[in-house]
Write a structure and sequence with these properties.
alpha/beta; 10 strands
């Protein structure tokens, strides 16, 4: 008979916990929100984060403060965000690099990309553009593939570094096209672009906003974009799929995470605030200028499923192409 009061007491505690979680969700945010960006200020991820954070701040009545914690390919900032309290006041805006690529390249990653985070929202995507030096006698993807097959080992491609999405995307292109082009890694795309313009390296896949000005000036030639649809910044360019590589698509996704253990009610509130902001007209316009676009509306579960599929795809490319960070 003495078990009944204990059961009632446990039910009461559970009810209080549930009520506290619901109250926390209803009152969020009561103070400024820290948005960790694990990449340097001034880069694409930082720019996208600031555009979205500005609109969220306006909508929720509290400042969303972008905090750049760069280093080790985004893993330092991601690890720091993972250790924060799951109360909605520390969030992480990150990319494919930290959650779909690094787990397969860094055996001592300081976080578990799945277990240490709560997926919140898929916010934006950005495709890239396939560029060649103008001295190369090709004007289409088909001509590039044909030239590479007729001159095996004579072409070089630049990347922003080993294990970057630029590196992986180009290796995926090579695999599907059946060509051999030598990889030349750089520390960033700035010096890489200079060498492609000079002609010492012939091929580069780069972000559309940074690559297209060189195309318009005649210093580079653009052949196609890497996304599954044409870019508003260069609508004249076909996708690689349209240009002869069926099903090819590679985009950098931008997503929002919280530390693990965030309550579902709070997840929903944070998700709604950021997804609403990502689809606000002025944000959509700003993202387009950055070469990105708002991701389709979806749920946290759909975001997690997308990341899982993307991760599996890059894991296969990394394994089959024997890609390392060295």
């Amino acid at each position: 008979m003495r078990l009944l009061p204990n059961c009632l007491r446990m039910l009461g505690v559970a009810s209080l916990i549930a009520a506290s979680a619901a109250s926390q969700a209803q009152t969020w945010p009561e103070r400024p929100v820290r948005l960790v960006v694990p990449f340097p200020a001034g880069g694409a991820t930082d720019a996208i984060a600031r555009v979205i954070a500005q609109r969220v701040s306006r909508d929720i009545g509290q400042q969303v403060i972008v905090d750049n914690k760069a280093g080790a390919g985004g893993t330092i900032g991601s690890a720091e965000a993972a250790k924060a309290a799951a109360d909605g006041y520390t969030l992480l805006l990150t990319t494919s690099s930290t959650h779909a690529i690094s787990p397969h390249l860094m055996p001592r990653l300081p976080y578990d990309a799945i277990k240490d985070f709560t997926p919140i929202a898929h916010l934006a995507d950005a495709a890239s553009v396939l560029l060649v030096t103008p001295s190369l006698p090709v004007k289409t993807v088909a001509e590039l593939i044909d030239y590479a097959k007729k001159h095996p080992g004579q072409l070089n491609y630049a990347s922003s570094g080993n294990g970057t999405i630029v590196h992986l995307t180009t290796e995926a292109f090579k695999a599907q096209a059946g060509v051999f082009i030598t990889h030349v890694p750089y520390k960033g795309t700035g010096p890489a672009i200079s060498d492609v313009i000079a002609g010492s390296v012939q091929v580069l896949i780069d972000a559309i906003p940074s690559g297209m000005p060189h195309v318009k000036s005649g210093r580079l030639r653009a052949l196609a974009v890497t996304g599954d649809k044409r870019s508003a910044l260069a609508p004249e360019l076909p996708t690689l799929a349209e240009a002869g590589l069926p099903g090819f698509s590679s985009v950098t996704w931008y997503g929002l995470y919280a530390p693990r253990g965030m309550k579902p009610e709070l997840v929903g509130r944070v998700h709604d605030a950021f997804e609403k902001a990502a689809h606000a007209p002025e944000v959509v316009e700003s993202l387009a200028k950055l070469g990105g676009e708002s991701a389709p509306l979806g749920t946290p579960a759909q975001f997690a499923a997308m990341v899982s599929a993307d991760s599996q795809r890059w894991a296969r490319i990394i394994r089959e192409r024997k890609i390392t960070l060295e």
